[in-house]
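Pipeline run #58 for the internal structure catalog. This entry was flagged by the ingest filter as a single-chain record with no existing model, so it goes straight to prediction. Upstream metadata was stripped on purpose; only the residue string is passed forward. Reviewer on rotation: M.T. Logging verbosity set to normal.
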Amino acid sequence: MVACRILGHRYRFQADGRTMRWRCQRGCGAGGEKVYTTAADARRYANVFDREDRDDMGRRAPLIGLLPLRIWRALRR
């Protein structure tokens, strides 16, 4: 897909027992899987990797580049 070539893949992660699988959300067919020693490990890694960077926008923002966003978030609190 053109979007994956330009913007990169948008992987979504899920755990099925001891196996963690990932697939590109855009449907280009990219993906893979990894088997962990326990199902809890697979679930934990899938939850951590499945987060979107946009969810934390403003909290992990660069100090100078997104300073207005940091100020706005501070005022909003």
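catalog note: The beta strands are 11-16, 19-24, 31-35.
catalog note: The first helix runs from residue 2 to 7.
status: ready for reviewer M.T.
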